[in-house]
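Quick start: read one record
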Amino acid sequence: MEDKTIGFALCGSFCTFEPVLSALTAIARDYARVIPILSFAAGSTDSRFGSAKDFRSRIEAICGAPPLDSIAQVEPVGPKKLLDLLVVAPATGNTLAKLAAGIADTPVTLACKSHLRNGRPIVLAVSTNDALGANAASIGALLPRRHYYFVPFGQDAPEKKPTSMVADMSRIPETVKEALAGRQLQPMILG
């Protein structure tokens, strides 16, 4: 177990929650401390994929701590240097757009902004139906920025959803390891 503190922020791409929770379990096994963070949507929305209450309970059981889910709770992330690395999985189109534009009005985006002030890595696991549409500009803006690392991602259903892309959530642990060493896991775009 590596003596690092990993923040793990989840946004509202509910269809990816199961593979994201599997990755969270692996991260919790590999690193000393994992601090869960939830977007407003992830923390409060019941969906066809499960209830917010059950989701929160599972996260708390994996991490051994309740998720941070308010602006006030995540604000100290940067000033107190709470994290060695922050994962955002799933990173929705909405969150990617806000990060690209420098908007920090949710627990996840403020945690990212606060964490970046220390020049520490953020791992993004893309999950958006519009990655090859309107969200392409946001992804393109984040790709060259320092301290951002992407979990390898690709089209998930090109025949039915030609602009949709999703990260391979099973590759979050290896992306974290590489990002801690300052390297982008390759290949980044899956064929």
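The mean pLDDT is 96.
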